[in-house]
């Protein structure tokens, strides 16, 4: 179908970057998708694979050619026994909220919990979506047992985890072939789809942003739902106190203590004061936040702590430790919000999810006056102990550059989302330079950049400028091997 | 002032799904919450207490898991919590529930030595939707009952309330003790603080079993329930009309306008 008017909404995503394409296709089965891919590949027609357009890196924004959208390819199979527990098979267009419900009906849960519940499982796999509990449970691909992969020419592979593993010279492939490539030495950060020895072939395609093929169906690993889930939001008067509190959680071994007791620390989220202010502005028009009182614009931001487990005793002990740390930082009882159980905690997760949504709304408002503006952010990943210095650097850099900014992220795993919110064209140009500075700072702290939201088109220049040369070259070789014509999701990453 | 709020633990109906084949509710995996109308009643009770002084107790009839609903109410500020829990109560309809709750109220009053001045209930539960338990309870306790209350204040030993009616609103004055069925849903609610939550987790709940209450066995549970839920389904609606398909929106709208014009002529 031609994209003209009726399907214009498929030309963009949450990055607010607009693309262009000629036709759009909506396969409902793997066979239909394979057929469409085979035809377009044979005709040398570039195409962009899309999920639910919830990405912020413009990976799903088409740059010409056609669009293959998976929203109608959303079947979810029954819960079944897998090699190591319960699994369910979902088509790539199935949304996280529907997978959560299907698993919940069987008393189970799909662990990865990126806050965007309307994201598709295929999209989550493609950008290595993670979320607040990745510190404990890993990212989305880590909970994928197997995939039905469609290569760019429509060839179908069934891959099970553990079946095809990279060694020092490459990896055997289904059908008897082999992908040969000298493996790079282990690196602190692996960008894009650069392979390394010991890596599962499934993980080569995870995070590849549709550039190597389509993970059409995914077998997802499920876990029993924990009987007890608790969460608390702590509001701080200054950033130093918030950072010291987060550091207390890590140096105090809360996660290790809980793990030893069969429980888990499933979130240690930080929202800075600018993020809270954005959410406060966003709140009146957002039904998901309507049950919460007005968001306090705490000068130091907020930290959200989530725990879960079978035994509330250890969970209580950790929350008492949290209270002690909070008291020591001048925190008052009234500056805590506590929730127990899924329905109550969902309100806090809505608060957390409101962070990117509120920022996107502010970008939209700014675009009314200056249409060239778009979402501008970078995801940095810091080693233990460097989260607070990076937050401090961000705040100082925002102020020095005179560009409004907001930072929030996952303190437990050192992953920070730094958002720049210029309101003018000059500000946008300055913000691009500031993004570079933020990446360089992360690198200087021993960290990396790009995680969980992918690279796409929005962060492509950052990747090309700052990723290790050898990894970029490895990615080019991988891309050429699987997509020699270079037709899939053009202009993502490379 | 001594206030009692009757609460019920219900499935979170926002999380309930429909079985596409049987059109019945899928309750498995659905989390439980305090009935939202009861939370609004609790909020009203806490406001009255904070204004006029006194205590707020909460009472729930349910299985052991309903303890969590009571602890939630304690975390939000209730002073004491009671659970009427016994296998004998299982399967009780609204008549039997009202009977059991009335006995529980009398027992709580006996133990505390102080009668309740005011009992608040939610307008109805979001799973049963009957709205019957509150008025039945008032009848058994010999109290005035006011339904669909949206505002209330205590003045000089009497209760002023604003009630929703089919015609609008009515201001009423009622003597105490009285039972109010609160029509509001909770609005913006500040979540309990962490210390309040932790304290509520450790609080001692009053447990009232069948043996603790002056009850006749044949009037509780299934035996005491003249009504039974046979099946819960989603109603199917049959609409008359036409479906306009097509990829061209202009053509589709033109067709729709034509259809509506024809209908208007008939």
- Estimated share of beta-strand residues of chain B: 25-35%
Order of strands across the main sheet of chain A = 16-13-15-14-18-19-17-20
**Most extensive contact:** A-B, 36 and 30 residues
Give the low-confidence spans of chain B.
none
Enumerate how many helices of chain B there are, as a single number.
Answer: 6
Q: Main sheet of chain A, how many strands, which sense, barrel?
A: 8 strands, antiparallel
Taking all Cα atoms into account, the compactness measure Rg of chain B is 23 Å
Number of E strands of chain B? 13
Order of helices and strands of chain B: EEEEEHEHEHEHEEEEHEH
Mind summarizing the main beta sheet of chain B? 9 strands, mixed
What's the overall average pLDDT of chain B, rounded?
91
Average pLDDT over all residues of chain A: 93
Described by the principal axes of the CA atoms, the overall outline of chain A is globular
| Head-to-tail CA distance between termini of chain A | 28 Å
Helix content bin of chain B: 25-40%
Q: Give start-end ranges of low-pLDDT stretches of chain A.
A: none
Indicate the radius of gyration of chain A in whole angstroms.
22 Å
